[in-house]
Design a protein that fits this description.
The strands form four sheets. The chain has a five-stranded antiparallel β-sheet. Strands 13-12-14-15-16 form a five-stranded mixed β-sheet, sandwiched between helices. Strands 6-9-10-11 form a four-stranded antiparallel β-sheet, with helices on one face. It has five domains: 87 residues, Zinc finger, CHC2-typedomain (DNA Primase, Chain A, Alpha-Beta Complex); 125 residues, DNA primase DNAg catalytic core, N-terminal domain (Alpha-Beta Complex), CATH 3.90.980.10; 115 residues, 3-Layer(aba) Sandwich (Dna Topoisomerase Vi A Subunit, Chain: A, domain 2), CATH 3.40.1360.10; 52 residues; 132 residues, DNAb Helicase, Chain A, CATH 1.10.860. It starts with 6 loop residues before the first helix and ends with a helix. About 6% of the residues have low confidence. It is an alpha+beta fold and 602 residues long.
Length: 602
C-alpha cells in the first residue's frame, strides 16, 4: 500500500494519535454526548454538522460527507499527501519512522521543501557575508531590524546576478528543472536550456508554513527604477499558495492562542517591526486580500481579529469583502486605521510597539462602525436615496452575522444613525435574505443531510439493496466478532457496487490476518477518499441498531436472495436473446446455468 513506510509503523502512529486532540488544534470542538462537534472546516455552514467520534477515531461531516481517520483529516486540511501526513503525526507522537527507501522521488513535495530550505540557507549566508550583503544589511539596520530578528526569520539577500542560485545548486547536483518546480528559477524564453534565478537584487523574506518549513520567498527590491516590482513573491507551487499562507504565523501561533486575538497587517516589515518590539500575536498577508483559506486558518487560533490599515488603504470599500467574510465565518472583527503617513512599521518605529498594541485594542472600530463610517463619508444621509444605498450596503454585512442578539443590536443602531424606522430596515433585510438564500438554506440542510445519512442505514430513502449492504458493513465494523458467525454466508461478490465489495474484501482480509478491525484502521489500509467517506458515513450511523445479530442475518439473507433474483432475471433475458438469435451453443450453456441456479435455491 505504501512504498516508503511499513504498515505496522503507520498503524502505530495512528493508534498513538488521538483524533480529538489532533483536530482540536485546528478547529474548536464541543462535546455533545459521546461525540465532539464543530462547524465543518471543509465547507461553509452556520450549524455544526462536523462530528468527531473518539471511540472509533474517525470524523464525518453530515453536510458535505467529508470523512476519514486522523491521517485523512490532515491530508484534507493541510493539503498533504499521505506519506507527509504520516510523518507529521509521527513527529508529534514521537514515533521514529524507518523508511524502506532512502529518499523520495525528486518531484515529491519533500524534495521541494528541501530545495527551499537549501535556498534559504544560501541566501541567508549571502546576507551575512561581508561586502556581498552590505546593501541589504544597511537597509535592515536603517529600519531598526536587529541581528536577532535577522537570524530568527532567516532573512536573506539575492545579489545582482542572473544565475547565482542556479549555478550553486548545479554544483550540489540539483537540476534547474527542479528549481523551476520549487519556484526558485525560471526558464529563458529566448535561449533553450538556459535558466535564471527568480530573485535578484532583493532582500529576501523566507515564508514558513505553520510547521516552520520554508515553502517560498518574498523579495523586496533594493534598487528602484528598473521597472521591476517593489515586492515579488514566489510563484504558486505544490507547497506554496499565497492565498493559503500567512507570513509570521509560524512564529506567532502560540502567542495568538494565548491572547485570544490576532492582528493582521499587510507586509513583511509591517509584521517584523511590531513582532520584534514585543507584539507577538500578529500575522501578515502575502500581497493578496484575505481569502476564505486565510480566515479558516486564523480560526484555528483565535476568534477575535484586528485588521490594521494605513490611511491610504483604509478608505477602500473593496477591502470590505474580506471583512464581511470574517464576520460570515463567525469571527469578531475590529479595524484599526493608523494616522495619515503611517504604516505599522513606521508607527512602531516612531511611537513604540506598546502604543501600537494599545491602539489595536482601544482605537479599533467594530465592523459595523467602520463600514458605516466609510459609507457616510461617501453618501449624504440627508438624501433619502443615499440612505437607501447605505442601508442596503450595511444589511449585506448584517445578514451575514449569525448571532441574533448582535444582529438585532446592529439593526437598531443603523435605524438610529440613519434616522429611519427600524421596521423599514427589517423589511429590507428580508429582501437581502433572498439574495443569501444559499447560506440560509445551508443552515437547514445539514439536519436533513444527516437524516439522509441515517436513512442510508435505517431505510426510508435508500434503495433496499444499499440499505441492507450498508447495514451489514456497519454491524461488521461495530461488532467484528460477528464475522466468524457469518463468514461462510458472505462473499464480496454478493455486494452490488465495487466500493462495497472492496470494503467487505478488506474486512475479511483483516480477519484472516488476525488484525484489529476498526473503521480507522480500515481507512488507513484502503487509503481511498471515496471509500473513507462511505466507511465514515456507515460507522457514525449504525450505533443505535438494536439486536445486531438478528439484523445482520436478516440483511445477509436479503442480499443473497436479491442477488439470486437479479441473476435469475439477467439469465432469463440472456436466454431470450440467445433464442432469438438461434445461437444454440450459447443457449445450451445458459440453460445449464439457469437449471443449476434453480436447483441451488431449492
Amino acid at each position: 500500500m505504501n512504498g516508503f513506510i511499513p504498515e505496522d509503523t503507520i498503524e502505530e502512529i495512528r493508534t498513538r494519535s488521538d483524533i480529538v486532540e489532533v483536530i482540536s488544534t485546528y478547529i474548536p470542538l464541543k462535546q455533545k454526548g459521546k461525540n465532539f462537534w464543530a462547524l465543518c472546516p471543509f465547507h461553509h455552514e452556520k450549524t455544526a454538522s462536523f462530528s468527531v467520534n473518539p471511540d472509533k477515531q474517525i470524523f464525518y461531516c453530515f453536510g458535505c460527507n467529508a470523512g476519514g481517520n486522523v491521517f485523512n483529516f490532515l491530508m484534507q486540511y493541510e493539503k498533504m499527501e499521505f506519506p507527509e501526513a504520516v510523518r507529521a503525526l509521527a513527529e508529534k507522537c514521537g514515533v521514529d519512522i524507518k523508511t524502506s527507501k532512502e529518499r523520495l522521488s525528486q518531484s515529491s513535495r519533500d524534495e521541494l521543501y528541501k530545495l527551499n530550505e537549501a535556498a534559504a540557507s544560501f541566501y541567508h549566508n549571502l546576507l551575512l557575508k561581508k561586502g556581498e550583503g552590505e546593501t541589504a544589511s544597511k537597509y535592515l539596520r536603517d529600519r531598526g531590524i536587529s541581528e536577532k530578528t535577522v537570524e530568527e526569520f532567516r532573512l536573506g539577500y539575492a545579489p545582482d546576478r542572473w544565475d547565482n542560485l542556479v549555478n550553486y545548486m548545479k554544483k550540489e547536483g540539483v537540476q534547474p528543472e527542479l528549481l523551476v518546480q520549487a519556484g526558485l528559477a525560471v526558464q529563458s524564453k529566448k535561449e533553450k536550456g538556459t535558466y535564471y534565478d527568480i530573485f535578484r537584487k532583493r532582500l529576501l523574506f523566507p515564508i514558513f508554513n505553520v510547521r516552520r518549513k520554508v515553502i517560498g520567498f518574498g523579495g523586496r527590491a533594493l534598487v528602484q527604477g528598473d521597472n521591476s516590482p517593489k515586492y515579488l513573491n514566489s510563484p504558486e507551487t505544490r507547497i506554496y499558495s499565497k492565498g493559503r499562507e500567512l507570513y509570521g504565523l509560524s512564529h506567532s501561533s502560540g502567542h495568538i492562542k494565548e491572547t485570544g486575538y490576532v492582528i493582521v497587517v499587510e507586509g513583511y516589515m509591517d509584521f517584523l517591526t511590531p513582532y520584534q518590539g514585543g507584539v507577538r500575536n500578529i500575522v501578515a498577508t502575502l500581497g493578496t486580500a484575505l481569502t476564505t483559506e486565510h480566515i479558516r486558518l486564523l480560526k484555528r487560533y483565535a476568534s477575535n481579529v484586528v485588521i490594521v490599515y494605513d490611511s491610504d488603504a483604509a478608505g477602500e470599500l473593496a477591502s470590505l469583502r474580506g471583512l464581511d467574510m470574517l464576520a460570515e465565518e463567525g469571527l469578531n472583527v475590529r479595524i484599526l486605521t493608523l494616522p495619515e503617513g503611517f504604516d505599522p512599521d513606521d508607527f512602531v518605529r516612531s511611537k513604540g510597539a506598546q502604543k501600537f498594541e494599545e491602539q489595536s485594542k482601544k482605537d479599533s472600530l467594530d465592523l459595523f462602525d467602520y463600514k458605516l463610517g466609510l459609507l457616510l463619508a461617501r453618501y449624504d444621509k440627508s438624501r433619502i436615496e443615499d440612505k437607501a444605498i447605505v442601508s442596503r450596503e450595511m444589511l449585506q454585512t448584517i445578514s451575514k452575522i449569525d448571532n441574533a442578539i448582535i444582529k438585532s443590536g446592529y439593526i437598531k443602531r443603523l435605524a438610529e444613525r440613519l434616522n429611519i424606522y427600524e421596521h423599514a430596515i427589517l423589511e429590507e433585510l428580508k429582501k437581502i435574505k433572498s439574495g443569501t438564500a444559499v447560506n440560509l438554506r445551508e443552515r437547514h440542510r445539514v439536519p436533513e443531510t444527516a437524516q439522509r445519512a441515517r436513512d442510508a442505514v435505517h431505510g426510508t430513502e435508500c434503495q433496499p439493496s444499499m440499505l441492507a449492504e450498508k447495514t451489514v458493513v456497519g454491524i461488521l465494523l461495530d461488532a467484528p466478532e460477528s464475522i466468524s458467525e457469518v463468514k461462510d454466508m458472505l462473499s464480496p461478490e454478493d455486494f452490488n457496487t465495487p466500493q462495497m465489495q472492496r470494503i467487505v474484501e478488506a474486512i475479511l482480509k483483516f480477519r484472516e490476518m488476525g488484525r484489529s478491525i476498526t473503521p480507522a484502521s480500515l481507512m488507513t489500509y484502503l487509503n481511498d477518499e471515496k471509500l473513507n467517506q462511505i466507511i465514515s458515513e456507515i460507522a457514525v450511523t449504525v450505533g443505535d441498531i438494536e439486536d445486531k445479530k438478528r439484523n445482520l442475518l436478516n440483511c445477509i439473507n436479503w442480499i443473497r436472495k436479491n442477488r439470486f433474483k437479479v441473476r435469475l432475471k439477467n439469465l432469463e433475458s440472456e436466454i431470450s436473446t440467445a433464442q432469438g438469435s438461434k445461437d444454440n451453443a450459447i443457449l445450451r450453456g445458459l440453460m445449464i446455468e439457469y437449471n443449476h441456479l434453480i436447483r441451488s435455491r431449492n
